Amino acid sequence: MRKTIITAAIGWLCLVSTPGSASAADCAVGATTTINGALGHFPMENEGAWVIVEPEKMTPCSVGALRGRGKAPAGCEPGKRFTASGYVTQALFLEMHVNSIRCF
User: Which pTM does this prediction carry?
Assistant: First the structure.
């Protein structure tokens, strides 16, 4: 049940967010890609997985959330920049299932 509540909350946050006028185009669903951006929220952890909602200032394309397995990546906090690689899926919003991430 907790996982359902967190997933619903993430979906709501992404649906009500308004990207800036200079936001990148959406990433292609099914694509494996690398994106760069900035973090506006702390990672949330639940049952061996983590998610970071509403990453900002992404290039070359954008997603609504970054998801990964295991512990949340060290050093990934609001105000930090990131480079993440993974594949893109879509349910209620675009998500990147992260294979690797570096925050700096």
Answer: 0.77
